[in-house]
Amino acid sequence: MTTAQEFIPRWACSPGATIQDLITSKNVNPAEVAEACGLGRDEFNRLLQGSVPITGKIAVSLAQNLGGSASFWLRREERFRESEAIVEADQWVQSLPLSSMKKLAWLEVPRDWRARIDACLGFFGMDSLESWKHSYADQLQTVRFRTSPSYPNQVSSVSSWLRAGEIAHQGFTGGNFDPDALLSALPELRKLTRIADPEEFIPRLQSLAARCGVSCVIVPAPEGCAASGASRVLADGSALIQLSGRYLSDDQFWFSFFHEVAHLLLHKDAALHVDGDPAAFETDSAESEANTFSADVLWPFEHRPSSVAAKKPSRRDIVRLASRAGTSPGIIAGQLQSSGVLDHAECNNLKRRYKRVGSRLLLKK
To answer: Given 1.10.260.40, 3.30.830.10, 3.40.50.1360, 3.40.50.150, which CATH number is that of 15-92?
Structure first.
């Protein structure tokens, strides 16, 4: 966007400041200038504030009433808009989770503020802030994504996380998304929940998903991003499931994965789904369906005894139920907690815990 030789101020000065200075120095009646420009009082005030642009007609009127040439005023307007765009891009950069992006090795963050703009646009594969808005901000503003109430404005951080997922997806060779193959693969995918170590089950998960045209990537969430999972079908025809693993437990990891599978299978019309804290869940039929789907895959209804709600199961009962369902005890404990059969503090020692080392998930022993 810039070159090192240019002096680009970190602010944008509206031509209105120059107009106001000339009105004062020449002792000209502002109403006469506004009338000459063909503007009403309110519109002229917006011109001074920079929200109304200087057109060719206005430039001629300003030249006649305040001095300078029409081309001077048009150049002044052009430079202001250029500076305004750069200042807006600078503010956008400051809204990004730069410290996390650097820590996660997503981005080298230059010290020069102008170079940071170019670096951040490069990370997103964009040549302008307007392109980023069209590709990420507008989509996130319109899609209903379920995140934490602790992060009321997450667009910049969530978009950074989504872009990191796209980068991790690059090189995927699984072909087009095949919904029927994914549906058929559910029993095999559920079996992976019995494997404790992420270093063993994640490659197998990715391999099974790839056969269905689904790329599954694990990407840590940066600061300010409360997302636990996202799903979408990409322009190349493949599907992408992106998980942050932010809760670092097997019940949450697998529930998030199958929740995103549900979106791919049941809600094909939506271009993007982003999901976060269940506490922030906004009543929505698609999200309810995805939750029900995930719960049923992890613990099929036919394997749920009718007595489980009447009598609180013991630790041994949960292990037995998990074995019968072909899933992990931690997942059954999580389901019982979610349904209110168990308190959220009960049987948590049945859950497998993970730790994060860089971008990797490891079993916490």
So the answer is: 1.10.260.40
